[in-house]
Amino acid sequence: MKKLLFTALLSLFTFNFATAQAYSGNGDQKVSLGFVPWGYGTGLTAIYDYGLSDLISIGGGGEFYFSGKNEDKDNFYVFGRANVHLGELLNMPSNMDLYPGLDVGFNHGLGLGAHLGFRYLFSDNIGAYIEAGSRGSLGLLIQL
Prior knowledge:
The protein is mainly beta. It is 11% helix and 57% strand.
């Protein structure tokens, strides 16, 4: 039974692989929901990105921390961000994208950060992401 379920899921992902696009340029919209294992603390994040061109997206988000380095300070981080999408330039499959980015935010003072992210779409609308840098997160990606 496990083999049948695995084969069915693999077939579903393979079927949708042909049309999934991790970054489609101008007008591309993504929402990411994830877990934050490091940065200002451990917690959850929500991020929105909007494509401005074939290479650049902007967005914003927030993080809520369950625990952190500064327990007596704010347990959130609100930020704006910009990414440069390299998937097409690096000839990656269309369902994958590699992107460096910068963010500016607020957590009991101004925060500046940088990250390197990777997205992988399983289907036209659902995927996974990971970002590492001054803060980090990983989780679910939803194409709007």
